Amino acid sequence: MAFAQRKIIDGHIHYAHYSYEEPLMSILADAGIEKLAVVCTPDEERLSLVPDAMLLKAQHPEKVYVFGGLDISPLFITPDIAGEAFAHYVDVLSQMGADGVKMVEGKAEMRKRLPLPDFDSEIYGPYWEKMAETQTPLIFHVNDPEEFWDAEKVPDWAREMGWFYGDGTYIDNEEQYQQVLNVLDRHPDLNVTFAHFFFLSGQLGRLGGYLERYPNMHIDLTPGIEMYFNFAKDPDKARDFFIQYQDRIIYGTDIGARALLRDREAGIEEEESLARIEVVRGFLENEGSFKLTHEGFLFGGSEAVFQGIGLPDEVLDKIYYQNFEAFASHSPKPVNKEAVIEECQRLEMMINAMAQMQPGSGGDTSSVTKVKEFFTKSSA
Ligand SMILES: [Zn+2]
């Protein structure tokens, strides 16, 4: 379907490799998306995807916000004081020119894979204090759709991805919500956006309660396709929620997630990206039911029926860019080349050290080396 031209910032895009620049930027340009926020996740072999994202920011300084992932190596090296290392890393990211922090550490599969402390534990204390004090924007992935904990309801595709969490070896989603809410009770002004509607699209009353309680909390619209099926069950109720919390909801699509999670060879695909845009914009802008005209990864195929809530223009403008600008800033911060070069050098060392210490991790310095060369040349 065709959408009207509007000013849009996509607040949640993944960029797994520097070679994706051309496809990503041309897909977004064709779709009329003006700016984007790249959210960085930890990487087993390369440790960090921040260098790739900083390179994209340098190539498109007016357009690209970067939310840097935390350096997780302290969890292995100095686990007792990891929180202090994370707090320090907030400064490192900021000095490089990152616009905020992304945490995917609340995904249950991550919690299991990495030796992560409980979010409300003392270890994290210095980090949360730093985040609250500096008002650094945080995009935080906590939990996953609740059906992933339910053997009866978990979708087959989620099982295939290794996202069935009901066998007792993963963190319980309610326990994890409680940990995060404890953090917010200590720091009610934390400048946080919970990705994927905090996975509470099926419990709007509860979610509204949190938005009332924590004035700086936002949520993003990034699928989780279950979100749009939940909204479709009662579009009037969904619409009321969007009107009531119109200042707290941020547009995002997860473009690039497939390339990150499933198929790095395929890169960022146009068709899949357009389906993501179509799900979210169709829901916000259409009146009544609609089907997708693009083919998306995990989106239920061409037969799935969605319901639009036809929001008014001024609410759309808030969700499409004003709320993101209020959460982050009106324009992306400039890249500090020297700081990026320095961080690339440190990462190179860490990647090699991790390969020695922690078999299966580290070892791939191809991205940091490339990015370091780019910035070294461009500052010469
Ligand atoms: Zn994502």
List keywords for this structure.
alpha/beta, two-stranded antiparallel ribbon, eight-stranded parallel β-sheet, 12 strands, 380 residues, 16 helices, globular, binds zinc ion
Helicity range? 40-55%
Note the beta-strand portion.
5-15%
Task: Strand order, main sheet: write it out.
Answer: 1-2-5-6-7-8-9-10
Distance between the termini: 47 Å
Bound molecules: zinc ion
Quaternary structure = single chain
Walk me through this protein's architecture.
This protein has 380 residues and is of the alpha/beta class. The chain has helices at 21-30, 50-59, 74-77, 82-96, 108-113, 125-134, 156-160, 173-186, 204-213, 225-233, 235-244, 257-261, 270-285, 313-327, 337-357, 366-379; strands at residues 9-13, 35-39, 42-43, 47-48, 64-69, 100-106, 138-142, 192-194, 218-220, 249-250, 287-290, 306-309. Helix 4 packs parallel to helix 6 (125-134) and helix 15 (337-357) runs antiparallel to helix 16. The N and C termini lie far apart (47 Å). The structure holds zinc ion.
Q: How are the elements arranged and paired?
A:
Blueprint lengths: L8 E5 L7 H10 L4 E5 L2 E2 L3 E2 L1 H10 L4 E6 L4 H4 L4 H15 L3 E7 L1 H6 L11 H10 L3 E5 L13 H5 L12 H14 L5 E3 L9 H10 L4 E3 L4 H9 L1 H10 L4 E2 L6 H5 L8 H16 L1 E4 L15 E4 L3 H15 L9 H21 L8 H14 L1
This protein binds zinc ion (ZN).
Zinc ion binds next to loops.
